[in-house]
Amino acid sequence: MITDFVLQMPMVGVPLAFFLATYFFGGFFTIRSAVASTLRGKFEVDFLMLVAAVGAALIGRWAEGAVLLFLFSLGHALEEYALGRASKSIESLAELAPRSALVRRGDAEPVEVPVEQILVGDRVVLRPNSRIPSDGFVLSGVSAVDQSAVTGESIPVEKEPVSDPERAARAVDAVPAGSRVFAGTVNGSGVLEISVTATASDSTLNKVVELVRNADQATSPTQQFIDRFQRWYVPAVILGVAATLGISWFAFAQPFPDAFYLSMTVLVAASPCALAIATPAAVLAGVARAARAGVVVKGGAPLETLGQVKAMAFDKTGTLTWGAPRVTSVTAADDGSDADLVATLVAVESLSDHPLAAAIVRDLSPRVPAPGRLSASDLNAIVGRGVTASIDGERVEVGNLRMFDEQQLTLPGTVATAYEQARNSGQTLMIVRRAGRFLGIVGVMDASRAESAQVLRALRDSGVGQLVMISGDNQRVADAVGREVGVDTAIGELLPEDKVTQITRLAEVHRPIAMVGDGVNDAPAMARADVGIAMGAAGSTVALETCDIALMSDDLGRVPFAVRLSRATSRIIRQNLIASLAIVAFLITATFLGLNIGAVVVIHEGSTLLVVANALRLLNFERGKEHAGITHEDKPTG
Fold first, then answer.
1. CA–CA distances in Å: residue 422 to residues 264, 349, 364, 483
2. Which of 542, 551, 494 is nearest to 306 (CA)?
3. Can you tell me the distance from the alpha carbon of 230 to that of 595, in angstroms, rounded to the nearest whole number?
4. Rg for the chain (alpha carbons), in Å?
């Protein structure tokens, strides 16, 4: 009987030539893919389709086998075209950098040089409205730079020259954001001259593109499950097809060609094409959408896990706060005035190079009119206590409470009360005494970001149950900032290794967890968390390389956006998986009810395109309400 149906195979002349051509062109890439996967010990969808096409030819159904391969190849082509939309969102980033730039070397006039030949230390002249070719810092000129392509910031950022180019070249990561520029961003109306800090291949833009291109290396949990599922599903389908052939032929006494045709149709119906692409398509679209918003997600694992976090830990300094001290309170003694207190303190601290002194001079100098400015001299630092100086021959003391306790001096009533209140709020306090009389106190604090409390409320509303702040500052400061921004728990006085311990303890109760920080000194704690999120990664190579998710700008408001995008991606994946399995179940049932192989292939490939189209909806995912009502303020600059 087998020889009877094999004898039906011969076909001569033009029809056979066309069918063979269809098999060759329709199955060329399918055969290559099937052979490659089989040699790796994997039986995938391409293998099943090839078996079905060969089976159709063996029983003389050349036309249906040709239709199978044609539609399967067409479906793959349309699938690749659709996925190309997501890939183009990524590749378009790589095309942002210009191909050449005006480089000034020595005292010569600027000459146009290909970006590949630009070296670290070269000086590049940026014309108005031109794209910036390399990372660097501003040497001269003032302009507003559109950084949206790299950081996602919608408003151009004002740029100004660095005060010390040699120091900036030695410590690039310490260059203020207001003086740094990135490849691929757009200069505004001013002319800038920059010093290059990275070659084209090592620029922040290039690193972002490479990270996003390689994002599929971190496979999502769902995809890992699907991969394991397919390892036994495909062999199970082959066994099921063999069982269908045997039962139809022997038990139901169908002619062998008919039984074989039915089994091949079942093989096509059960092939998990849509199932295989359901997760990768959603992950690719989600990663591409995140990159367009200045959020670099390193693959499906962090993208899918972030939406499931039950707890989120935040480093305090530079994350919930600005990481730069500000003057937060000025309290004069009853018999003094704010003007005398401020003028005296500014005069003394202008001689000091202490970070808190810089903050005082920056914030309080505008409050001292030119006619009222004082001149101090003879500055002397007293370690662990404060400084002394002289103004118009009068001794001035600026320091902490210990400095005056050791002299057995007591703060006057109003000053003492203000001191206790300010200390309990977490401020670092400086007491000012001149000519034996207390002038008052000034409080300095690393102020929280204006948006921190609103972002944390948005995260809490989205279902993140536990919000924790960890800090190396003393517990009083941590408690004060924690109350202000609204965390559930504030833990202070932690060394980097202590932060790792706290994340471990948190993970024992809440899992999965995320850690948000700067990605540098808190990198060990971020590595311990299920998802590590680094802020301001555009300015830090270390942060970009150590985290799972990088917020390219210093914008805390992108954390809720990333959580929402993660959940939307997971929702799309679930929809795709349910649709894929439902269509497979429908097709297998319909096959036994008489649906032919051509119709099965059409529905089968249509379901694959439907899954891809559903995933591509993520490219239009809106940032939505996580930024509504969230206010931003400028970071303090030194």
1. 80, 20, 18, 14
2. 551
3. 25
4. 33
Instruction: Return the closest-CA partner of residue 638 out of 356, 367, 444, 341.
Output: 356
Which residues fall within 8 angstroms of residue 347, CB to CB, at 6 or more apart? 373, 374, 375, 376, 389, 391, 396
Of 226, 299, 217, 208, nearest to 569 by C-alpha is: 299
Q: Which active-site residues does the annotation give? A: 315
Q: How far apart are CA 92 and CA 105, in angstroms?
A: 31
Instruction: Indicate the pTM of the whole model.
Output: 0.72
- Record the tokens describing residue 183, joined without a space: 């490849």
Is the bond leading into 496 cis (omega within 30 degrees of zero)? no
DSSP letters, 424-463, are HTT-EEEEEEETTEEEEEEEEEEEEPTTHHHHHHHHHHTT
Rounded to whole angstroms, the Cα distance separating 186 from 148 reads 9
CA atoms of 97 and 522, how far apart (whole Å): 32
Residue 456 gets the label, from left (phi > 0), alpha (psi -120 to 50) or beta, of alpha
Contact present, 569 and 303 (Cβ < 8 Å): yes
pLDDT surpassing 50 at residue 2? no
Render pLDDT for 129-186 as a digit per residue (tens, 0 to 9).
899 999 999 999 999 898 877 776 667 888 999 988 998 888 887 788 889 998 888 8
From the list 160, 159, 134, the residue with the least C-alpha distance to 144 is 159
Rounded to whole angstroms, the Cα distance separating 549 from 534 reads 6
> pLDDT tens across 339-381, in order?
999 999 999 999 987 778 888 998 999 988 888 789 999 999 8
> For residues 313 and 489, is the Cβ–Cβ distance under 8 A?
no
- Which amino acid does the sequence have at 31? I
Q: What angle (nearest 5°) sits at the alpha carbon of residue 637, between those of residues 290 and 202?
A: 45
Q: Are strands 180-181 and 136-140 parallel, antiparallel or unpaired?
A: antiparallel
- In angstroms, the CA 144 to CA 160 distance is 9
Q: How far apart are CA 508 and CA 506, in angstroms?
A: 5
Where does 271-330 have alpha helices with state H?
273-292, 300-306
Other beta carbons within 10 Å of 235 = 11
Burial class (CB in 10 A: 0-12, 13-18, 19+), 335: exposed
Closest CA to 47 of 67, 62, 65, 30: 30
Q: What is the DSSP letter of 131?
A: B
- pLDDT given for residue 140 in this prediction: 92
List CB contacts of 349: < 8 A, sequence separation 6 or more.
356, 357, 360, 361, 398
Give tens-digit pLDDT for 493-526: 887 778 888 999 998 888 899 999 876 667 788 8
Closest by Cα among 170, 166, 99 to 139: 166
